[in-house]
What does this fold into?
Amino acid sequence: MAAAALRGLKRPLAAALSSAAAGAGAGAGRAAPAEPLTVRREAAGVRAITLNNPRRRNALSLAMLQALRADLLRDAKGPDLRVIVIAAEGPVFCSGHDLKELSSEDDVKHHTQIFEICAEVMTLIQKLPVPVIAKVNGLATAAGCQLVASCDIAVASEKSQFATPGVNIGLFCSTPGVALGRSLPRKVALEMLFTGEPLSAQEALMHGLVSKVVPEDKLEEETMKICQKICKSSKSILALGKATFYRQMAQDLDTAYKMTTQVMVDNLSLRDGQEGIEAFIQKRKPVWSHSQDEK
It folds into this structure.
């Protein structure tokens, strides 16, 4: 049943919106409602969030960032959500900020709001209790590249490219540099930031910006394989592991080992920690509670 539900996520966006389109067509003479900037679908623990403004190259406008934040936060701690996938409609995954919102026509307060909510969304991804996967099929530039670098896992098609070209238009990609500098070797990140030249999908894989590169026609299948594997594990254990990983990355070696040693002990006290060990010893599949309760 779970596998069938996961296959439901593979329907094209047009099918997912068909009922809405039909409803719009039924009202003769009425203007069709604007399509949502993001489309959220959920089945069998997998939430698919699709950036849905291909005519604007899925730019991270203030409205797009607000919609993405709402989709990420929606019932994030609920028992059913296990993994989030961020994808996009059209040939561009995400072109970064909407430059029309960054012109001198808008005041400093507006510009500050845009960059602050962008930083909030990027850090939120790593604070969520479930893994977040970027499914990239096309170009990801500037803050769009930042979005990919901020996700826990990134699967890209062979045609995908990644760049931070802000320097070429007089707006250095300083905030994307935060995520890039934590995902790539320093000299690779700085070459991207200084020149604006793109990385191919294979180069991005070689340097660690993405986790896997696959043919375009295999992108959905490979992403779902990762999702299905994640869904077989305990949500509470994964949440503990994800939070611990990012926490220890900011610490020195001795502090990191001291902290993670205690986390391992705490992990053993959880109901699912003991259930997993008992199931392994008894040669059976574990029955997860997905709770943070102690044994």
User: Anything to note?
Assistant: The longest helix spans residues 108-127. Strands lie at 38-43, 46-51, 83-88, 92-94, 132-136, 139-141, 153-157, 161-163, 199-200, 212-214. The chain has 13 helices and ten strands. The CA atoms of residues 40 and 182 lie 28 Å apart.
